[in-house]
User: What shape does this take?
Amino acid sequence: MARSHRAPPRRVVVWVLSLIALAAVTVGMAAIRGHLTTAHVALTFLLVVLLGSAAGGRTLGLLLAVLAFVLFNYVFLPPYYTVAIEDPFDWIVLAAFLVTSIVATHLLNRAQQRAEEARQRAIEVERLAVLGAETLNVGRAEDALAAIANVIRTTLGVEHCDISLDRAGPTPAASDASIMNVPLQVRARTVGVLRIAHSAPIALDPAQRRFLDVLAYYAALGVERVRLVAEAERAEALRQADALRNALIAGVSHDVRTPLTTIKAIAHRLASHGSPDAASIEEEADRLDRFVGDLLDLSRLNAGDMSMHLELNTADDLVGAVVHHVRELPGAQALCVRHDQSGAVLFGTFDIVQSMRVLANLVENALKYGPPVTPVELFVERCGGRLRFGVADRGPGIPPGEQDRIFEPFYRPPGARPDVGGAGLGLAIARRLAEAQHGAVRYEPRPGGGSIFLFELPAAATPVAPAAFTRF
Ligand code: ADP
Assistant: This one.
């Protein structure tokens, strides 16, 4: 709490009343002094000291004890109205009275302090429980932060309390004791800052500091929640944008394919009538059809809508299908297949049609981007639980900064010639097709120059006698 320097009026009243009570008791007992023993006087004064101490605290208790001690001697011990004491035993009575009242004042005060501390703790726990329930129940994390700031303001009696998501709060000037910044941390990570400000210097006692630290932790959790909610909203917005884009691509692709079929049919008819341009129209229509097909597949793969027929197949069947598929391509005679060294038939669980697309794409790229007569190597091996197909060429390779980007849809390297390659969808689709079968496609630079594209699929144990399967 910001310290207030004005004495509370209740304190003054208690002091004045206690002194009046002491005076009244002294006068009253003096009037009937003849009927009283020193025990009566001592107990009555002790009562006043304890009542004053209970109401006004230790200082008042000690003051009353000393005053009562003096009055005891002066008014009630012969010779009266002098500080001298006639009977030496009265010294003992007087000393016993002084010690008893001082000790009793201390004990009473300590008990009161303990009770007050317990009361403060109870209030603190109750406030934290209420705050915890409130912050858990509010719909928006921002409201929880506002509630926490409010509790800090009212509990510590400061004028301002802000909770900011900025990790570095405003730095108070070195001498500015009226501003305090508390870093907000969750698992040793700073997520924001809590700033309290007051018109007077802020001085917190240990209990207040403890309370502030606990609330700062609540605030840190609130800030973290605000951040997570913002992230979830962003992710949801992205997901919706993705869904919209996929739906758009699917719709547009479908609308483009219908007229394409008509164009192809007309071009085909014209070609059969000997029209010279009809063949290239048909070729372009085919290219466009493939592009639209790729787009559709990409949107289905992105949306997780592409169904895979995962079955037991052999690596050799896949390699054989790919070799057959690319046999007509320019440079296909440079393709050189290297089988697994162990000679065992390798089995895997994969979709043979889609895997053929992946591997054929990698081989087509190697033939397309590699130098014309240099061999392109296609190898297969088993690595632990995976079947690994590799396509290695002696082409230009991929610069380090682009090795991941080539798997992004529509990526073409800067300066790529428009007449070489397609639309940049091949590798994006290949990677997604591999992942949809719990496999992967990745790039590695080839020692000595060129590229190695690796296509991995889950391997399977040999199901029946290997002799039932033939190598191609
Ligand atoms: P594209 O249809 O353009 O070939 P891909 O997705 O198959 O699209 O490939 C993306 C880019 O990756 C290509 O434009 C090319 O620059 C690069 N690339 C792919 N394969 C190779 C390779 N074997 N060697 C060199 N660059 C390659």
Notes: Strands lie at 160-164, 179-186, 189-197, 311-314, 335-338, 347-350, 376-383, 386-392, 440-445, 451-460. The longest helix spans residues 206-272. The pocket of adenosine-5'-diphosphate is lined by residues 365-366, 369, 393, 395-396, 398, 406, 411-413, 416, 421-428, 451 (CB under 6 Å). The chain has ten helices and ten strands.
